[in-house]
Amino acid sequence: MLENTLVLLKPDAVKRSISGEIIARFERRGLTVAAMKLMKVSREQAKKHYDEHREKPFFGELVDFITSSPVVAMVIRGENAVKMVRSMMGATNPLDSAPGTIRGDYATEMSKNVIHGSDSPASAEREMNIFFTKDEIF
């Protein structure tokens, strides 16, 4: 099934200049970049994005980190894009991520794990609307 999913290359990926390598991995896998922008995430956007974690003790850290410097926000499109992107990313905790996954190859710690990808088609739709307008997605 053809799907769109949101991917954020977090501040640590942008600062380390590995965004291009990660984007190339998606393209080599046959996925398409349907929208992309380098942007500074506002605190309001970050709070909406991480709303499911609002009551957790690490909520403030998530918001602080994602708003600390620019991210690359993308809509990635392809067959079963949500599941494919999630498998390419690896486990949330880099220590549990297999070599060959994005986090396994590039992430160093749980709080700075390089990338976010939507975890379901419903989450993808909600998250894409936080970062993109309909006319920005091709």
UniProtKB/TrEMBL annotation:
<keyword id="KW-0963">Cytoplasm</keyword>
<dbReference type="InterPro" id="IPR036850">
    <property type="entry name" value="NDK-like_dom_sf"/>
</dbReference>
<dbReference type="GO" id="GO:0006228">
    <property type="term" value="P:UTP biosynthetic process"/>
</dbReference>
<dbReference type="GO" id="GO:0006241">
    <property type="term" value="P:CTP biosynthetic process"/>
</dbReference>
<comment type="function">
    <text>Major role in the synthesis of nucleoside triphosphates other than ATP. The ATP gamma phosphate is transferred to the NDP beta phosphate via a ping-pong mechanism, using a phosphorylated active-site intermediate.</text>
</comment>
<protein>
    <recommendedName>
        <fullName>Nucleoside diphosphate kinase</fullName>
        <ecNumber>2.7.4.6</ecNumber>
    </recommendedName>
</protein>
<keyword id="KW-0597">Phosphoprotein</keyword>
<comment type="subunit">
    <text>Homotetramer.</text>
</comment>
<dbReference type="GO" id="GO:0006183">
    <property type="term" value="P:GTP biosynthetic process"/>
</dbReference>
<keyword id="KW-0546">Nucleotide metabolism</keyword>
<feature type="binding site">
    <location>
        <position position="103"/>
    </location>
    <ligand>
        <name>ATP</name>
    </ligand>
</feature>
<feature type="binding site">
    <location>
        <position position="58"/>
    </location>
    <ligand>
        <name>ATP</name>
    </ligand>
</feature>
<feature type="binding site">
    <location>
        <position position="92"/>
    </location>
    <ligand>
        <name>ATP</name>
    </ligand>
</feature>
<dbReference type="InterPro" id="IPR034907">
    <property type="entry name" value="NDK-like_dom"/>
</dbReference>
<comment type="similarity">
    <text>Belongs to the NDK family.</text>
</comment>
<keyword id="KW-0418">Kinase</keyword>
<keyword id="KW-0808">Transferase</keyword>
<dbReference type="InterPro" id="IPR001564">
    <property type="entry name" value="Nucleoside_diP_kinase"/>
</dbReference>
<keyword id="KW-0547">Nucleotide-binding</keyword>
<dbReference type="GO" id="GO:0046872">
    <property type="term" value="F:metal ion binding"/>
</dbReference>
<keyword id="KW-0460">Magnesium</keyword>
<feature type="domain" description="Nucleoside diphosphate kinase-like">
    <location>
        <begin position="2"/>
        <end position="138"/>
    </location>
</feature>
<dbReference type="GO" id="GO:0005737">
    <property type="term" value="C:cytoplasm"/>
</dbReference>
<feature type="active site" description="Pros-phosphohistidine intermediate">
    <location>
        <position position="116"/>
    </location>
</feature>
<dbReference type="GO" id="GO:0004550">
    <property type="term" value="F:nucleoside diphosphate kinase activity"/>
</dbReference>
<keyword id="KW-0479">Metal-binding</keyword>
<dbReference type="Pfam" id="PF00334">
    <property type="entry name" value="NDK"/>
</dbReference>
<keyword id="KW-0067">ATP-binding</keyword>
<feature type="binding site">
    <location>
        <position position="113"/>
    </location>
    <ligand>
        <name>ATP</name>
    </ligand>
</feature>
<dbReference type="GO" id="GO:0005524">
    <property type="term" value="F:ATP binding"/>
</dbReference>
<feature type="binding site">
    <location>
        <position position="86"/>
    </location>
    <ligand>
        <name>ATP</name>
    </ligand>
</feature>
<feature type="binding site">
    <location>
        <position position="10"/>
    </location>
    <ligand>
        <name>ATP</name>
    </ligand>
</feature>
<dbReference type="InterPro" id="IPR023005">
    <property type="entry name" value="Nucleoside_diP_kinase_AS"/>
</dbReference>
